[in-house]
């Protein structure tokens, strides 16, 4: 396709999205009087997975109607580093509307609170995230079968949907060589207008850190999107290859298609309250009770085929709990009548915690330019802004937050990994595993059994030298992050007892399983070795954190707790795939156990947090779920 045609299509997509702000698009509904009498498919949540499903169903069934109910509205979604932002400066944060979640204090981290964001806009979290577009390790998905999940969900079963879900555009050979971008086209192949690309820019000191990792023996992989990613990876951005604008579900699965779909409606500015089964859970599909955010009016929407919950890891379980689906003790405490016992609802919360791995100063820095601090120069920033507006775009604003990361396994992080594995297995053998679980489900047989199975599964994953346990993304600067990819601690999402429609109570409980700190210690000790490499010594890198005086485990542990980031924005797993007797909420077709006509399709169905940022998996999940639904409803 020619450059001019690509640019024209991009302009049409953005015009289609923003048109809803000034005129009433025929497909956008804002009050009950505009809705049809009923819909075949009702999807709760216009986010990454939900819009993917809506797009595919409205395409496959032109005679069936699809409604998406979205709390937010159609709005412009800036990239994670767009003009006029600085790079991590005082004006660096800008975003489409989003939810802000503060967790309960984490006692093991000095009562630190986890801060998590989610998109409150058409496009969901794909419209507000950091645009880092990696995929999980094949071993992550393959391990789910040990938890009672069908092999349909292993890497072989999911890989076609990873390929289908995005359109990858390779950079020029000159850009690829300049910035060490490598890839394998066989990992891609989709035509969906959800774009993955590499930017034509990186900060000048990026190469120094990259050389340091190489000198530590980190293997550089040609491609990390095909399931094998232990090593050094080049990671694309979820951005358009020509304009560098953010590519998200609100564009690729809504604005780009809705104008040609008379059967695809979107109800904006409405909250899904609950699903209602007037004649019992076996009589589905249920109706959906919604609340207008403008008038506060409530009304029911009739689904003829089924309702799909795609409200995310925090809001999907709250819809289920308000519906009376969950653990008896949790519902009782909220004063809600139970209609279905599913203790896994709102349980099993996982995310990626981490801390600074190592920080340093250069006493003999290279003559690096351009660097982030140059954004403070009005001339440099003006040129960067001009480059952003060119076609094709160029300069700093094209790069989002970065495109490199290392993914290191536990055996390659520490020779003491067998002792860590033994600690995990001891918890399952001596019965202590349950003591690390949240108090309100510690005595639940299904949840305890499911957690023990997870620990056994994770012990196998963590001893595998091909399975990443530590992630360190970087683009510039004087520090590295040490992100824990397979934490053992489990949290909860619960209703606010004083206002069920308010933000849920999130308790991440990071560090509640002490083995997490063993892995964190290993990660930080390994990361510090970066400063012993020839490249970093050549530039006179001097450690500033943890600091040369911090050497003992106790001292390092104190540092980890003080330098912690308790959410890298990847909450998941609160309505997990798996058997009901192990705490599962949905079956292998993503149907809620025991609730006819109700399905969950979002990142809450993951049984274990993956060794990746979650957006690419959310797209693939939506594609696979759409295929499942289409097959079930095709005569």
Automatic annotation (TrEMBL):
<comment type="similarity">
    <text>Belongs to the GMC oxidoreductase family.</text>
</comment>
<dbReference type="GO" id="GO:0044550">
    <property type="term" value="P:secondary metabolite biosynthetic process"/>
</dbReference>
<dbReference type="Pfam" id="PF00732">
    <property type="entry name" value="GMC_oxred_N"/>
</dbReference>
<feature type="binding site">
    <location>
        <position position="121"/>
    </location>
    <ligand>
        <name>FAD</name>
    </ligand>
</feature>
<keyword id="KW-0274">FAD</keyword>
<dbReference type="Pfam" id="PF05199">
    <property type="entry name" value="GMC_oxred_C"/>
</dbReference>
<protein>
    <submittedName>
        <fullName>GMC oxidoreductase</fullName>
    </submittedName>
</protein>
<feature type="binding site">
    <location>
        <begin position="48"/>
        <end position="49"/>
    </location>
    <ligand>
        <name>FAD</name>
    </ligand>
</feature>
<feature type="domain" description="Glucose-methanol-choline oxidoreductase N-terminal">
    <location>
        <begin position="312"/>
        <end position="326"/>
    </location>
</feature>
<feature type="active site" description="Proton acceptor">
    <location>
        <position position="613"/>
    </location>
</feature>
<dbReference type="GO" id="GO:0050660">
    <property type="term" value="F:flavin adenine dinucleotide binding"/>
</dbReference>
<dbReference type="GO" id="GO:0016614">
    <property type="term" value="F:oxidoreductase activity, acting on CH-OH group of donors"/>
</dbReference>
<keyword id="KW-0732">Signal</keyword>
<feature type="signal peptide">
    <location>
        <begin position="1"/>
        <end position="20"/>
    </location>
</feature>
<dbReference type="InterPro" id="IPR012132">
    <property type="entry name" value="GMC_OxRdtase"/>
</dbReference>
<feature type="binding site">
    <location>
        <position position="568"/>
    </location>
    <ligand>
        <name>substrate</name>
    </ligand>
</feature>
<dbReference type="InterPro" id="IPR036188">
    <property type="entry name" value="FAD/NAD-bd_sf"/>
</dbReference>
<dbReference type="InterPro" id="IPR007867">
    <property type="entry name" value="GMC_OxRtase_C"/>
</dbReference>
<dbReference type="InterPro" id="IPR000172">
    <property type="entry name" value="GMC_OxRdtase_N"/>
</dbReference>
<keyword id="KW-0285">Flavoprotein</keyword>
<feature type="active site" description="Proton donor">
    <location>
        <position position="570"/>
    </location>
</feature>
